[in-house]
Amino acid sequence: MKNFLQKIPEQVKRLSVLLLVVVIVFIVATSLLTPKDFGLVGHYRAGAIQNNADKKMQYAGQEVCADCHDDIWKIKNSGYHKNLSCEVCHGPSLNHVNEPDQFKPEKPRDRIFCPVCHEFNPSRPTGFPQILSASHNPRRICVTCHNPHNPTPPQTPKECSACHAEISSAKSVSSHMDIPCTKCHEASEKHKLRPREFLPTKPANREFCGQCHSKDAKGDEFIPRINMTTHEPRYVCWQCHYPHLPEAL
Amino acid sequence: MENKIIKTDKKVERRSFLKKIAILALAPIAFGFLGASDKLKTVKKWMLENGYIPSNHKWGMGIDISKCIGCGRCAVACKNENNVPKEPFFFRTWVERYRIYEDGDIQVDSPNGSIDGFENTRTTNKKMLRSFFVPKICNHCDNPPCVQVCPVGATFKGEDGVVLVDSDYCVGCRYCIQACPYGARFLHPETHTAEKCTFCYHRIVQDKLPACVEVCPTQARVFGELNKKSSPLVRFLRMNKIGILKPSLNTEPKVYYANLDMEVK
User: Fold this and answer.
1) 8 Å CB contact of B217 and A46
2) Does the beta-carbon distance from B209 to A116 stay under 8 Å?
3) What pLDDT score was predicted for residue B238?
């Protein structure tokens, strides 16, 4: 054993002592610097999950509102806004739940607020009720006519454009501008109240468009005419022509 | 014969040497094993102070693009709930508007993260082919690139699948912000640590919905468990055609989009 130790060159001995010191320093340093809960459940500090969970809430959640405001809750849940959480309009209200007298939730009443959702925008899904606030009863506050908790319009909308703004804006610049929607779609009164349950009809065949556009149709001379038997007989008209803007190619 | 004796002598010496080496090597492993089994016990019991056990959950979100009206209430609620700086450019969630024109041109914008709404002004004379809103949020990847690159272990995927940031441990090196392919992270201007959506972790551990889901007026956002059949998210995944963002990156997002357009990146 002594021989073996003596055989090791001096520089190797010194270097290995140095290496040992480095390793010990590393082990001591990591054990001192690594938090105790690091690596407990993964390569992270387990306490960080508690830190993330400890943050303060601001939104109470709509179930809480019903405990005190059950009258408004009932009205809201029977109308178009039934799926809206109260805090969409009234803002974060957990403070109000904890101390009802000290903190009052927001009550947005100005004309800017409702159009956040209901201003016409072509990117919005069709059928979502949208208005052009510039022409929709200008300068009147929305809540004078619409109860925000039950926003059924005071009169059922007469114009289809109240909901189908994009279609009506396309139609208004087309050669079909003078044709009323009801010429092609039969919409029952119920469609205005429960739009998705009672859908309007749509034309079903080529002959419907042919009433005006076939060779032998009656009507003004400027209406473009086609030969119904030779003009693309395998397709229905709206596969190529957009009926609300037939000029579009 | 002499040779043989010498050989056996050498053998004995090697054996005892190997024994010593083995003992030296095994001692720390044995100690470590004892320590590890101790750790295992604590892991099984490990839970949050309110009794929430992360390993019992797996959270995810569903977003129906055809329902989003671009009102930006989610981005507002997120900023209120999580104390996100009010300036633009700091968002945990935001809504993008996609406008695709007939010549194949695509415009994507998100003015102030959709909080002030979208101006309905035409910027070109080109005809629009289709247009829609896409809410964006941290995808809480099952294979998160941000966690891979964090040099200190300050960002991690918890046992419930939520990717969180340890703001006490974060050194603010911005690696994770670079690594996130979805642009979901930012550096908080005051704390100088990385920030991101946590699925409102402080809410979900108390059985509440994330703030953006709570306020979404059209139910475009759905939140729930991925491994429980009764969860609204599983129903959402069953009823819709589902897409995820950047599937080619193998990040395995847990934010699922219904009616996703191929142009959405």
Assistant:
1) no
2) no
3) 94
pLDDT, position B35: 56
Cβ contacts of residue B85 below 8 Å, gap of 6+?
B188, B189, B190
Domain identity same for A163 and A210: no
Query: Which residue shows structure tokens 């054993």?
Result: A1
pLDDT digits (tens, 9 = 90+) for A107-154: 998 898 999 999 989 899 887 888 888 888 888 898 888 899 988 776
What's the pLDDT score for residue B39? 53
- Domain span holding position A159: 108-134+141-172
Tell which of B171, B197, B208 to mutate to test the A interface (max A CBs under 10 Å). Answer: B208
Structural domains counted in chain A: 2
Q: Do A61 and B218 touch (CB under 8 A)?
A: no
Q: Does A6 touch chain B (CB under 8 A)?
A: no
Question: pLDDT tens for residues B112-169?
Answer: 999 988 987 777 788 888 999 999 999 999 999 999 999 999 999 999 999 999 999 9
A73 in any annotated domain: no
How far is the CA of A219 from the CAs of A172, A177, A185, A247, B183, in angstroms?
A: 21, 16, 20, 19, 59
